[in-house]
Amino acid sequence: ERYRVSGEVLSLRVKSAYAQREAEALATRQLWLDTIFEDRARAQRIMDHQRGAIAQLTSQEEVLRADRGKAQRVMDSQFAQLQKVGALLDKTRTELANLKRTMAAAKTACGRRGRCFRPPGSRRPVFQRIARELGRMLRNIRRIFGNDARAGDTQSGGKGSETNVRYREWLAAHEPAAEELQRQRAQSVDWSEMVSLLIPVFEAPRQFVDELFASLLGQTCGSWEACVIDAGSTNRETLAALRHWSAQDRRIRVERLEKNLGIAENTNRALASASGDLIALADHDDVLAPSAVYHLLEALRSYRGASVFYSDEDRLTERGERAKPFLKPEWSPELLYSCMYLGHLTAYRRKFAIALGGFRKEFELSQDYDFALRATEQANGIVHIPHVLYHWREHPGSGASGGKPEARKTNLAALRDAISRRGLDAEVCEYPQANRVRMRLKDSPRVSLIIPTDSPARLQKCARELPRQAASNEIEIIIITNSGLIDSIRFWSEAPPPMVRFVAFDEPFNFSAKCNAGAAVATGCRLIFVNDDVETDQPDWMENLIEPLENAGVGAVAPKLLYPSGNIQHAGLVTGVRDFIGTAFHLLPADTNANGNLAQSMRDVSALSGACLAMRREDFVALGGFDQVNTPISHSDVDLCFKVRARGKRCIYTPFATMRHVGHASISAAPTPSVQRDKSTIHLLKRWGEYLTRDPYFTKNMRDWLFADSPLPVQMFARNHEMPASSQLDVLFVSQDLSLSGAPLLLLHLVEWCRDNGIFSAVASPVDGPLRQRFVEADVPLIIDPLIARGHESFGRLAAQFDVVVANTIKSVGAISAARQQLVPVAWWLHETKVGEHFMKRDARVGAALMFADLIFAPSEASLAIYRPHGDGKMRRLVSGIPDLRARVNNGASPDDGRVRFLMLGTVEPRKGQDILVEAIRRMNPKLAEHALFEVVGSGLDAQFIDKFRAAASSFPNLRLREGVDYDRSIELLAETDVLVCASRDESLPLTLLEAMCLGKSIISTDVGGIPEYLTNEIEALLVPAEDAGALSAAFERVVRNREEARTLGRNARAAYERRYQVERFGRDFAALIAPLARRRKA
């Protein structure tokens, strides 16, 4: 019985083992089936997304097929144009070759080796000529003694240095021209403020002393004094030089000491003798730029409350060449810890410097750094002057060449003293390329690492490797991912450690929302947002990243990010560059020392990358976290950093934590990427316009020199808005320029109406001009970028953010194709009549753009008639309108001298017909002409025509020309006149006619273009045929004879303005025109 029972037990055990194995097999099959079903659901989502994408592509393909015939016609037209251009080019080359042969023969016959063909130049001031001759002597001596062997040394500024060649080109584009220097001399001649230059001298070579004082006497502003302290020099050449220059100019005052008291005490002696409003520090071996004093005093006059002023600088090589520019940010407290970045040229209010106690001897050789640290603690304002005003000489004994190694010790001592004085719990560390103020962490703050991911591989890697990097138990790792990945964790061979927590996020991909979800459950007082593709081998990276947050003024910190190649991906974000946002020192080596070692220095920046970003939890919550509505994916980090700055805290880049970043892996792993159009840039432009377009820590000079991703300069202007108004449409207007001509001014009026009526508008122009200030004052975002005219892809990226692009005038043709490539609807606002025909013949792009534009509108049927053959179905007339000008001017009463005042406003050029005006005046009855006064207001580019008109005008006592009149003054002149005259040969509709109608002025005009569509002859104006000087003269005489009739014409013109040409009607009609385009875009 026992054996039977044992056999049954054994049998049952075998069956149990088989059953357990079957159960495990079933579980495995169930897991397999679950995985298949999960993959199937994921595949279904992907197919749904692909189906939508295919439908969108099909729609686009249909559009492209519809445009194929148009494109063929365009190409045929372009081919014909190219043939004509080729023939013209061959003819031009032949003419050029003939001209070259003629010029060569003439130069050969010239007895002055061709110099007689050079235009005469203005004679330099004597001091500039002295400095030039000294420079020539120096270069000749070096050539004689064979110093040209160093010509290829890039570090010494040799001619073989590619960097120095580029710097010379940069200087040519940024240094003031002779005209600007002359303007500075004229403007500053009566300034009462003065700069005292403190110049300690000790055994300086005569050449250096001569060049320094020659640069002073060559200043464009003469309001300076040189307080020179000779610290007991024995060198005869030094003493002779000081005697010579002090005798040459009484502003150079030399005080001799019996012995050298040291640089700090010598400088204090100079300070005691100073009497200027500002004191500026200059070394005896350096050179000032010609406009140094001017810019210091200009800043002093502009910033009345500021105490400290500093400028950009460069080096003066042993060859006397300028090299190694140091272009500086605006006031950056963190950077001043890293180095004495204020450097040269630095100036302080004299009374403020005396109140600080002068320069301290215990910090000898770093007394200027100690003084700057103390001064910036108490200064009312610190002003950066964005000009290279100082040339720091490199020679074996100079600080510029590292000839004063003992200065490093006093430099660190001055910083330690400042840290102690400020009560910061920190240590000062010496690094090869910069100082470091390292805050001590208090009580080991708990840190929450927040990692959004949807990648199974990266999920495992983060969960397993990051805990090994944790230096303490006060760290939690929060991973935000989808529920499916969280469920798969139970099948891992090794469970994640307890410090790793998972948060489910199954909503459509929204990077900001995922980060906010992680922060909501975080328990740490320090949050570090980390992309799942950021890695590092640095064991103390977390401590280095969060320690700057111990400083209460710091709100966010980010590390140096490198590509896998080892080059820099992120060393702080910059704004105000093309595409608005860029990266400082992008793609440079990780250890680059570019521009004063900024990439190796902890410093203030405008924004930080969210790939690895540290903040206090309380600050993150107070700021509302990431904006998951307006910046769900792109620019969420930039928006958060702007909120940090708006709260009065600083964003800090630290090079002492270094990470590797693959880049965009987090986004590419998203299961269902959103197909909604990204408008995060529009949000930044509306809310953070000033921060987005102006970077105080990456100034214009820095951008033009350092930003290699898109080096061609760009300008931007916008403002921040605490609560930006919601907009029904986002429209990008393109203006051909920012001149005060009619089309840009009409655009300004329209944009102002849009601003006040719920349409967000930005303006882009390839060319700067006087109208820029009007757009800035109107609070309209403005981008000035020469690439717009070329139709560059960067403009396409900008246009893609908007609902509609409106290109103003035929000259904006380049913007059409770039916008259409991004499938953005384009409306083309054409003003030109006969000029338009000229452009269509000359530029094949115009014909193509007419076909591809979605809407074409013009102010008159006369203009539309030119373009109808290229697409009548999309042509519309938009009657122009302007704001009422009466509130901007006085009552408009004319000076009562008994004469009728006639005014002609506009560009002086053949098209405007000033020559016809002259002929009409000549034909007037002399007695009637005595009762008329004619004024022509305007300027132009046709020098020959203008000179001819000036000569003709000078022969008439009742005709005068005013040039260089700004827009506001021109409106005042219009208000003061009796009659506006338009003698144009070709017009669509001059803006001046609408302005005259608005002000109730009589109008005499030619009947060209669209003018008869706006003015009724004999009722609202007197219209005469084009180029008919006799008819124009008769109209003048009619007005002089019958002034009451003229006043009636003016009243009728005002009534017509009120009925048809007010800006409110203009704006409403415009909005109705573009609304269908915007609906199509949103659909």
Summarize the structure.
This protein is an alpha/beta fold and 1083 residues long. The protein has 39 helices and 37 strands. The N and C termini lie far apart (86 Å).
Textual characterization of the structure:
The chain is of the alpha/beta class and 1083 residues long. It has five domains: 32-110, no CATH class; 191-401, Spore Coat Polysaccharide Biosynthesis Protein SpsA, Chain A (Alpha-Beta Complex); 447-693, Spore Coat Polysaccharide Biosynthesis Protein SpsA, Chain A; 725-877, Rossmann fold; 886-1061, Rossmann fold (3-Layer(aba) Sandwich). Helices cover 44% and strands 18% of the residues. It contains 39 helices and 37 strands. Strands 1, 2, 3, 4, 5, 6, 7, 8 and 9 form a nine-stranded mixed sheet that branches. The chain has an eight-stranded mixed sheet with strand order 24-27-26-25-28-29-30-31, with helices on both faces. Strands 34-33-32-35-36-37 form a six-stranded parallel sheet, with helices on both faces. Strand 10 (426-430) and strand 11 (435-439) form a beta hairpin. Helix 31 packs across helix 37 and helix 37 (1029-1041) packs across helix 38 (1043-1060). The model is unreliable at 105-123, 139-160 and 664-675 (pLDDT under 50).
